[in-house]
Specification:
With about 400 residues, this protein is an all-alpha fold. The chain has one domain: Sodium:dicarboxylate symporter (Proton glutamate symport protein, Orthogonal Bundle), CATH 1.10.3860. It is built from 17 helices and no strands. The longest helix is centred in the first third of the chain and has 33 residues.
């Protein structure tokens, strides 16, 4: 009997979880542990996977000239797509005005607000870790990536003997980490059943969220759809010269997993596998662009942060000038870079945007109830953008692809 493919297992688990969450909300506690255990397993491998992947990717690129060229293209792509996503969100939130007439009910709180009150300059300064081991323990992804890029680059500058040894070492570590992660990924359907059942049971009565909250969700969703199905496919078609539909089909398993887990970092092994084996991008490109993208390329998160900040301003009756909105655009771009690829990370990062344009941090309470649902959609967009970037960069490097 032919084994059911993973994405079909995930879809079946997803549908069953929705039915279970709606029909048996009081019994969700008996299955939600599967989701918690699955996410713990994914979080366990994130740091060693990203560290080994980036170092391996940089050392395999070879020369500093290659690293500089690919790195420059990657940076330009990430900045371009995130900026386009933010501008899309800005247009829709100004046109739809989801916060006008909203009823304020700021009774909920969120952990991590204090840490996000520091200035943006302070946030950027903290990219350089004072203690890399503390960064590992505290899950500071930007610091870890900075160290990994630095470490990988200077491996290429060492003597031949040391360079070959360290390159082989980190290639081996990366290979082991991929195998461990793929073992965890085998339990994705069970994990997703627990996660989705819990989400559905907590949000089954959407009428309680209010009309304006529904309009806010729709605004974010429309912005994400436009960016995903118009902006990114156009970049694929005219810059990458590839068929967007074929590439979408090639990476659909990774996108479904990203949507279900709300974690671009946790989806990384599936993303790499799909882009390499289905789209035909070389490991030289994927091992550098995708791990980096899983942490710093957050198109969906950037769009969400801008729309959420504007929604909060509208709900408080605060008029934001053009200058304030431009500041919000740039801050959303930079804050999205600092958002870790884990569930609901963007919710904490949005406080940086609120602080930059003088909005009350307590406004986060307005969006807290529906954030988990939107998180799934924006994470899928994040991963979709990462895969598009890898394909476009590979094409500009002269690689022959399958899509």
């Amino acid at each position: 009997m032919k084994k059911l493919k993973l994405h079909w297992q995930i879809l079946i688990a997803f549908i069953l979880a929705i039915v279970f969450g709606l029909l048996f909300p009081n019994h969700v506690k008996y299955v939600s542990w599967m989701g918690d255990l699955f996410l713990r397993g994914l979080k366990m491998v994130i740091i060693p996977l990203i560290l080994s992947s980036i170092i391996s990717g940089i050392t395999n690129i070879g020369t500093a000239e290659n690293l500089g060229r690919i790195g420059f293209k990657t940076l330009i792509y990430y900045i371009l797509t995130s900026t386009l996503a933010i501008i899309t969100g800005l247009l829709f939130v100004n046109f739809i005005k989801p916060g006008v007439g909203a009823d304020l009910g700021l009774s909920q709180t969120i952990d991590g607000l204090g840490a996000s009150r520091e200035s943006f300059g302070g946030t950027m300064l903290n990219i350089v870790p004072t203690n890399i081991f503390a960064a590992f323990v505290e899950n500071k992804m930007l610091s870890i990536i900075f160290f990994a890029v630095l470490f990988g680059f200077f491996i290429t500058q060492t003597k031949n003997k040391h360079r070959i040894f360290l390159t082989d070492l980190f290639n081996s570590i990366f290979d082991v980490m991929l195998k461990i992660t793929m073992f965890v990924i085998k339990f994705t359907p069970l994990g997703i059943f627990g996660i989705i059942a819990k989400v559905v049971s907590e949000h089954s009565n959407l009428s309680e969220l209010g009309t304006r909250m529904g309009i806010y969700m729709a605004t974010v969703f429309i912005g994400l759809v436009v960016h995903s199905f118009i902006t990114l496919p156009l970049l694929l078609k005219f810059i990458g010269k590839v068929n967007p539909l074929k590439h979408f089909n090639a990476v659909k398993t990774a996108l479904i997993t990203a949507f279900s887990t709300s974690s671009s970092s946790a989806t990384l092994p599936l993303t790499i596998d799909a882009v390499e084996n289905n789209s035909g991008v070389s490991n030289k490109i994927t091992s550098f662009t995708l791990p980096l993208g899983a942490t710093v390329n957050m198109d969906g998160t950037a769009l969400y942060e801008l729309v959420a900040a504007m929604f909060i301003a509208q709900a408080y009756g605060i008029h934001l000038s053009i200058t304030a909105q431009i500041i919000a655009v740039f801050t959303a771009l930079l804050a999205s870079i600092g958002a870790a690829g884990i569930p609901m990370a963007g919710l904490v990062m949005i406080t940086i945007v609120l602080s930059a344009i003088g909005l009350p941090l307590e406004g986060v309470g307005l969006i807290l109830a529906v954030d988990r649902i939107l998180d799934m959609f924006r994470t899928a967009v994040n991963v979709w953008s990462d895969t598009c970037g890898a394909v476009i960069i590979a094409k500009t490097e002269g690689e022959k692809l399958k899509v």
